[in-house]
Design goal:
The chain has 741 residues and is of the alpha/beta class. Bound molecules: adenosine-5'-diphosphate and zinc ion (2 copies).
């Protein structure tokens, strides 16, 4: 018998099956989905692969399968093959998402100590290229790099144990800047020593009950149905999820619940433990060590865990007898992967739910336009919750016109109204959150004499001034530079700093409210060492007066003592170069507003903006989703944007712009020729950010409804490009990407 095997490799040329002979003694042990170790090419070490099919005979001379590993189900292999086509990636990339992380069981110790963990330092694509092109020769180096690629955040002893390489080799890779070592506080496993105070379920309100019963019906009738629970913050969505899951478990089935990575806080996990205990719960997210991930995965495979809560990739958890999939905050962008494989967890969830004949539940206070559109068209069943479950009232929202403030001679970052509100809040010992979606100090540096702007030398974008380090930083590649005081073009000293970031805001707040305590949360303060959870915990436990932060502060946290939320500049998300600018603005503002007055204390929200009449800002003031949706949908229809089509972006990047241009134009012509008229194919152009890390970037944008035929054609075109072996040129196809730049 011959097994058809997919090699575990990123190389595009290897995205096909290879034939291997199954030795008689292994014949009864190999199924579709079994991981195998096989000799490959002239390599001394065995390669990893997966069996994806069988045949009687092979036309080639074949080698034997050497060893067996873990096993996936046939359904998983089917899904991986489908994903490979749909998301233009290798089957093995998808299989990897479905596999038990790590290979051996390891008891993880829970301590409060600092440990050292290892991350990739160099860009992953660059490393892969160096491996493929033979620049990295040592097998041990390759092995370690591949291991860290799959297990970022592993400790050095873990790397030693799993790769069998000595720590000295890891250190060499650190010295040569392939890897970096980071100190990290060991986070307590949230499930470990939690006191279990079982919570009772609530008597559902009429609205909750109505939603529950509709979904219950689909469960009882064992059929697929997609639901959208559209309910304002605090309307009791989570309570419905909990009671649905309870039902599922009683019927001896299992549940997957996805939440955005950043909302996967101890708070939500606690609510699940209180209801179900920790025995039956598994938690999957990126901060777990490999040992922990391995244990959680095993707990699932051995059917000890009945419920999985996790971020995007938890959709691949190997649950048996799945009964329901729930995706909370379904509008969140983190459900779409932006690196290879570029999958959409909502799409995968639907695929799985259909296959298993179970309901899929999406929940949000600000549903994605695409989702709501489907609900309007009855593709998704809409369930509405309009009242807060604990009777707290929605905050009062006020919009401040910054143009008016300027006209009144107020040049500070705070309007008079916001200033007084903060002052009052400090006096009352209530907490305030200030939101500004730009980090750093100044976002734009220009010579007033000749108009020269300081840009990153690797990327074609403005450098941001960071006052604490007194440096200029590129937010795309991390390149840093000393402060510019003289213009390199004209020699003038009239250099000016424009734009406001969180650092400048913090400084200003400290100046204006010297007695108030502040804490800042953005990518610069949230590091691998200092998690956002810790900052939020400090904010809550130490009753710090003011939390200043970017996007990170808006997601699902619950602070009873926060009564004031100030948005410093609502315009920053309106000005992004993306068709979803209005949608993002509405979602962010509504979510930020939802942080105020969540319990007994009444909340107040002040939004400052230069565009007070913009409809997404107005709709968020009224907390009127419908009004926003209607206006936005009309715009999308006129301009032909999703949900009226899909957007496919083909990205090319290379050091050599000539190669890109050549390939991009050829690709363009081929697409034009092959894709029927219903597609709008735009000419290849440099991307809005046309250079990142010294690599030039071009893109082709295609608008239309992607179906199996187009997917197939694009896959063929991609294959042709790769067969030409164009050195460092990278091509990626992304369907409905989060970012168009
Ligand atoms: P959401 O997920 O929509 O933000 P939650 O489920 O977290 O809402 O509910 C908000 C608050 O109301 C929570 O404190 C929750 O315990 C409470 N709650 C939910 N359902 C009920 C109910 N039926 N009766 C009383 N309180 C409820
Ligand atoms: Zn100048
Ligand atoms: Zn840069």
């Amino acid at each position: 018998m011959i097994a058809q095997v997919i090699i575990n490799s990123k190389a595009k040329q290897l995205n096909r099956t290879f034939d291997y002979n199954i030795p008689t003694e292994l014949e009864d042990l190999i199924y579709i989905g079994t991981k195998v170790l096989i000799p490959f090419g002239r390599k001394k070490e065995l390669e990893e692969g997966y069996v994806v099919g069988f045949k009687e005979k092979s036309e080639f001379e074949v080698k034997d399968i050497a060893k067996l590993g873990d096993r996936l189900t046939e359904k998983q292999i089917k899904l991986a093959k489908w994903m490979s086509k749909r998301y233009f990636c290798n089957v093995s990339d998808c299989i990897k998402l479905m596999q038990t992380p790590g290979t051996r069981t390891k008891q993880n110790k829970v301590t409060d100590k600092m440990i050292q963990v290892v991350y990739l330092k160099k860009d992953i694509d660059e490393i892969e290229y160096e491996i493929e092109s033979g620049k990295i020769k040592s097998e041990k180096h390759k092995k370690i790099l591949k291991f860290v690629r799959d297990n970022e955040g592993a400790t050095i002893p873990e790397i030693e144990e799993y790769t069998g390489c000595a720590r000295g080799i890891v250190n060499t890779l650190i010295k040569n800047e392939y890897l970096e070592k980071v100190e990290k506080k060991v986070e307590r496993n949230p499930l470990q020593d939690k006191k279990i105070l079982r919570s009772q379920k609530y008597e559902l309100t009429d609205e909750q009950k109505n939603a529950f019963v509709s979904i219950e019906k689909a469960i009882d009738e064992k059929r697929f149905e997609e639901f959208l629970i559209y309910g304002i913050t605090g309307s009791g969505k989570t309570e419905i999820y909990l009671q649905l899951i309870e039902k599922i478990i009683k019927e001896n089935k299992t549940a997957i619940m996805l939440v955005p990575e950043i909302s996967l806080t101890p708070q939500i996990i606690e609510r699940f433990i209180e209801r179900f205990g920790k025995q039956e719960l598994a938690v999957l997210h990126s901060k777990l060590s490999i040992g922990e991930r391995h244990d959680e995965w095993k707990k699932i495979k051995e059917k000890r865990a009945k419920i999985v809560i996790g971020a995007r990739s938890a959709i691949f958890a190997p649950m048996g007898n799945l009964g329901i999939i729930i995706i909370d905050e379904e509008h969140d962008m983190s459900y779409k992967a932006e690196s290879n494989p570029r999958y959409d967890a909502k799409e995968i969830a639907k695929k799985i739910a259909k296959e298993e004949n179970i309901p899929l539940i999406l929940g949000s206070a600000t549903p994605a336009i695409n989702t709501f559109y489907k609900a309007q068209n009855k593709e998704i069943t809409l369930l509405k919750l309009t009242k807060r479950a604990n009777n707290s009232s929605l905050p009062q929202v006020k919009i401040i016109d910054l143009k008016q403030e300027l006209a009144n001679g107020n040049h500070s970052m705070l309007s008079m109204e916001l200033y007084s509100a903060i002052e009052e809040n400090i006096k009352n010992k209530h907490q305030t959150i200030l939101f500004l979606n730009r980090r750093g100090y100044s976002t734009f540096i220009m010579c007033r004499e000749c108009g020269y702007t300081v840009k990153c030398k690797n990327c074609n974008i403005s450098m941001t001034y960071h006052s604490y380090e007194n440096k200029l930083k590129c937010h795309y590649c991390g390149y840093e530079e000393k402060l510019v005081t003289t213009c390199p073009e004209c020699g003038s000293k009239k250099i000016r700093y424009f734009g406001t970031g969180t650092q400048k805001l913090e400084q200003e707040i400290k100046k204006q409210f010297p007695k108030a305590s502040t804490i800042r949360m953005d990518i610069d303060t949230v590091t691998k060492k200092n998690s956002h959870e810790e900052i939020l915990k400090d904010f809550k436990d130490k009753n710090i007066d003011i939390l200043i932060g970017t996007q990170m502060v808006v997601k699902g946290h619950h602070f009873p003592n926060v009564t004031l939320v100030g948005v410093i500049a609502a315009d920053s998300s309106l000005n992004i170069d993306d068709y979803r600018a209005n949608e993002r603005t509405f979602q962010i503002l509504t979510q930020v507003a939802g942080r105020a007055g969540r319990e007994k204390l009444e909340g107040k929200v002040i939004i400052q903006t230069y565009n007070p009449d913009n409809f997404s800002i107005q709709a968020s003031r009224k907390q009127n989703y419908n009004e926003f949706y209607e206006t936005e949908l009309e715009l999308r229809k006129q301009l032909k944007y999703p949900p009226f089509c899909d957007i496919i972006v083909i990205r090319f990047d290379s050091i050599d712009e000539k190669i890109i241009k050549e390939v991009a134009i050829k690709t363009y012509l081929k697409i034009k020729e092959k894709i029927a008229e219903e597609f709008l194919v735009f000419k290849p152009m440099p991307a809005p950010i046309d250079k990142i890390q010294n690599r030039c970037r071009w893109r082709i944008v295609i608008k239309g409804n992607i179906d199996e035929k187009t997917t197939m054609l694009l896959n063929e075109i991609l294959k042709e490009i790769y067969n030409k072996n164009l050195k460092d040129l990278r091509v990626a196809i992304d369907v409905n990407p989060n970012s168009m730049i």
